[in-house]
Task: inverse folding
């Protein structure tokens, strides 16, 4: 294992220390681990908190700042954070306007955030959870834990963070988050595996001419393995899975603040259709350089155009990664006027910055 | 042995859990690597390590309070899917026994019932989905029906553990429908569920302590 | 070779097509290859043009935009561009205020830009060249082609681009560029090699426990090879080479516009000293994820602090890369008030954006 | 053979350069891989390929114009260090012969003198620094002194090429002080310079054409 690390046990702590040194505009707690904006809580503004396993940087810590997240909770590498992290982060940044938890749909993340929501609620803080489940590589939700939360998370955090900055209340933020999730679909592939520092060896192995299609973001096995094909062919496979995905129906569990209980909500994501505008994210899994992402973007733009889908905004780079894995993912989020307005709003975080 | 479980036995049981999960770390992790992300052993060892750290300060506490503190320690240190599930199990179990200093056999049934109810509420899984419930629910059923049929605690616990072990084996041919393993679909068949395995190890240690064969 | 490419011959063209699709604010010419800002020439503003081999993305094309480069000329992978590229780019973007060529110190780049300067001059366009030579891994200039141009280029392009935007004339821009170059030092290392698409195999091979110290940005051999050490130890080696580097003297060749001839200029870079403020760049060679860069930053900040050197601004990420190579480089540029002012000025390019 | 070089011979020479550099691509690239970046063969083949493309349209042009066009083609297609150097060589050489339709022996000397002067001005290298100049300068000196001593063009060109070949071999023990190879310092010793090698191949083809042994 060749990595820029010292002792394996300290990887996460030392990376957070480096982040703290580089970003005085962030407060970083090491025990429990959470990252907050200096100056929080902000009176009257909903605090947006996200979190998940580490190894996906810049997600989520790199998105803490003006116009995006108020706090992030990093778990161990590829392991969901624990409820005390969300609980302490929420206590540190919650205003009267309450706290929105953005949760990627993995059993571990979902359950730990649910536990945290109960704890935060019992402190008298208004709290709401929303789930991101956008990975079309997972086909059904009847026989699985449901679609994983991947690239749409980045776009959701930007859009909802801007809405909170502008003064949207907790319910409005949650509704907007639900909409962005419902409008978003993603799919990813790997050219190489990655090495979790604590494991010290690659999570899986691919032959020199093999790729893995339909991966998540934890080096977990994908849908299938195949021979390396030209970039255009791979992009077409992923993009068409997204563009042609039918209506996706499942039940999500959300916190009912009134009754302090969990309720189930049936949710249907409608397919993309001609005439839609989208925000596109062409994302590196960590080890793929931006030059190759542009080759991906080229084909994606062509495919969208052929279906009369307009890419209104785009982001090309490493935003939700799997350590040093080579590969990419595509995310498309249907964008209406409200979403575009908040996408364009100023943001100032370590990984995303414009307008300020 | 008498037909009650003392507070000292509960403490010994939890200490033994920490010790055994440490030695079984690699085994559980290997099971998880096959159908999950290969951390279940690490998660459980870390969690019960934290539980063990809390025990010395619990000498004067009630059994309910010990279980509650253990659950909180698990929740705040395990992470992943199993952390909130095991944590919830212990915290809910604690509400069944509250301030008690020793447990009657039927208290154990109530404790497990409430704990399992918490796991089901949190994880929304049911028997047959290849999770820890495939061990826990048959174990509870066996314990309860033996006691109701008049068996002693020791025999009932033997039946309970035997049912858990059968439950673990029953997970092998199952297709996972919950947790990370569910993404594998058919490819999860042929592998034993790690969470069901750790649950069975924990129940086995309870039986051993109650029967006096557990290390103190 | 596992890359997201189609045919090897088309790699560069297709990546540029993708860039063009993603960035309508850029004009991209494919023959000869150059990238310009839409709207150029800008009356009264010096046009800043850089270029070099491809494979270092986002350098330089990703830095074309408001407040930074007016144009960039990408050569083949790791090969300097040809003079006709600079010549056409200059003709496309030059205003009356003239053109500044930013040239990294490699024989190929230097000679091709010199040829281009003569061609551009003979078109009646005011042109000036400035050299970036900041790589302390090259010790002398008497017995070599001199220090290579590496990370300081990024900071120089930002600072001088902002000055041009604000209306600095050609001589003022050139003077500022000379100052930034003189104030900047860099050094890099590789954990892995990279694969030039046309070659199809790694440029060099490192054992699983070996790293290469003192590399340039083309996968060329470095100073020496050694066993992998903890990140802190590697960072210390690189940072101390930079911080403790003595005065560096060499002769640079610059265009004399008055006499239409080349003149030699003796240049001395003074060492860093206690009390200095710096802009720090912790750069990924392409395949190293930002999380590991933060571990590097942590130690770098500690070492700077111990020498009473204040990191006034910082940039952490992939900015001047070698394809998918894993590794990092450190750049420190002494920052005075003028440099900081232009560093903070608004910039809007594909790879660097703030204030707009 | 007569003692002049005709325009047709110049064109044949350039065509032959394109053909030979294509076949020697791998060899030159291999030399460059050892102490540079392994592209010299690719660069030269690409460059003279472009020169060849221009030749048909040059049938009615002067020798000076042919050389100038060739130099420009090299400059705009080779890249790297060798592109502007070879390009400058040809463009400067063209100014020595201008509108001529055939060359006297001493024209060839002037042509090489001016070309080499251009290379030196652009690249600021001198003999002994392990560059193309280590072939070009001895070659020029041999050509000139032979002609001045009264030798015929054919013999003088034989001496010229022999000197270039000796010059190439002389680069092997040298430490590179210019170009990419200079970063290697002592590690550049023991390797033959690719640029000196390509220069020698090009001079050899000129000799062959003049002596009538070159393919037309
Ligand atoms: N919804 C669920 N209900 C009950 N048990 C579950 C559920 N999801 C997962 N599990 C259990 O959790 C175990 C995995 O735990 P662990 O590996 O520690 O967490 P993670 O899957 O997040 O890495 C599985 O083997 C299974 O027994
Ligand atoms: N300053 C110089 N003067 C003369 N020749 C040079 C100089 N620098 C490099 N060369 C020649 O250029 C050759 C390398 O050319 P090439 O590989 O095509 O370009 P690059 O080094 O840019 O990849 C060297 O072998 C050497 O002969
Ligand atoms: Mg896990
Ligand atoms: Mg696991
Ligand atoms: Mg080259
Ligand atoms: Mg070369």
Result:
């Amino acid at each position: 294992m060749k990595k820029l690390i010292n002792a394996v046990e300290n990887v996460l702590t030392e990376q957070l220390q480096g982040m703290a040194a580089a970003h005085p505009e962030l407060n970083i707690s090491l025990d429990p681990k959470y990252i907050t904006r200096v100056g929080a809580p902000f009176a009257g503004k909903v605090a947006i908190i996200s979190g998940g396993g580490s190894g996906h940087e810049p997600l989520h810590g790199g998105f803490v700042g003006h116009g995006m997240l108020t706090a992030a909770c990093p778990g161990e590498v590829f392991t969901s954070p624990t409820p005390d992290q969300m609980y302490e982060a929420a206590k540190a940044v919650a205003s009267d306007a309450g706290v929105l938890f953005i949760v990627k749909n993995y059993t571990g993340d979902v359950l730990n955030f649910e536990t945290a929501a109960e704890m935060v609620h019992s402190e008298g803080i208004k709290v709401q959870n929303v789930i991101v489940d956008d990975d079309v590589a997972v086909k059904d939700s009847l026989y699985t834990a449901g679609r994983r939360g991947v690239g749409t998370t980045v776009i959701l955090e930007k859009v909802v963070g801007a809405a909170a900055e502008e003064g949207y209340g907790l319910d409005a933020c949650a509704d907007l988050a639900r909409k962005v999730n419902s409008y978003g679909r993603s799919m990813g592939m790997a050219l190489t595996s990655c090495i979790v520092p604590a494991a010290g060896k690659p999570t899986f192995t691919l032959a020199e001419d093999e790729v893995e299609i339909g991966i998540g973001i934890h080096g977990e096995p994908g849908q299938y393995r195949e021979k390396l094909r030209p970039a255009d062919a791979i992009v077409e496979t992923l993009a068409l899975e997204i563009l042609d995905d039918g209506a996706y129906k499942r039940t999500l569990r959300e916190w009912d603040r009134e009754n302090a209980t969990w309720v189930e909500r049936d949710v249907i994501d409608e397919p993309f259709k001609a005439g839609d505008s989208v925000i596109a994210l062409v994302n590196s899994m960590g080890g793929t350089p931006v030059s190759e992402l542009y080759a991906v973007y080229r084909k994606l733009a062509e495919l969208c155009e052929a279906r009369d889908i307009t890419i209104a905004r785009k982001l090309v780079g490493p935003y939700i990664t799997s350590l040093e894995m080579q590969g990419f993912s595509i995310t498309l989020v249907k964008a209406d006027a409200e979403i575009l307005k908040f996408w364009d709003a100023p943001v100032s975080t370590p990984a995303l910055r414009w307008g300020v | 042995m008498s037909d009650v479980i003392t507070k000292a036995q509960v403490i010994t049981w939890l200490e033994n859990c920490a010790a055994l999960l440490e030695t079984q770390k690699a085994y559980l992790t290997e099971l998880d690597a096959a159908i999950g992300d290969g951390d279940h052993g690490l998660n459980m060892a870390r969690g019960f390590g934290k539980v063990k750290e809390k025990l010395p300060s619990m000498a004067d506490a009630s059994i309910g309070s010990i279980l509650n503190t253990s659950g909180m320690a698990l929740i705040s240190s395990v992470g992943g899917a199993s952390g909130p599930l095991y944590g919830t199990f212990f915290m809910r179990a604690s509400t069944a026994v509250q301030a008690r200093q020793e447990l009657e056999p039927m208290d154990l049934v109530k404790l497990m019932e409430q704990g399992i109810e918490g796991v089901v509420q949190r994880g929304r899984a049911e028997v047959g989905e290849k999770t820890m419930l495939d061990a826990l629910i048959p174990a509870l059923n066996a314990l309860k029906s033996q006691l109701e049929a008049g068996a002693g605690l020791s025999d009932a616990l033997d039946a309970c553990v035997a049912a858990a072990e059968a439950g673990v084996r029953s997970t092998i041919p199952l297709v996972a429908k919950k947790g990370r393993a569910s993404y594998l679909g058919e490819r999860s068949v042929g592998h034993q569920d790690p969470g069901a395995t750790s649950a069975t190890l924990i129940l086995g240690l309870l039986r051993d302590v109650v029967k006096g064969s557990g290390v103190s």
Observations:
- Helices of chain C lie at 11-22, 83-93, 107-122, 152-166, 170-183, 231-243, 290-306, 337-344.
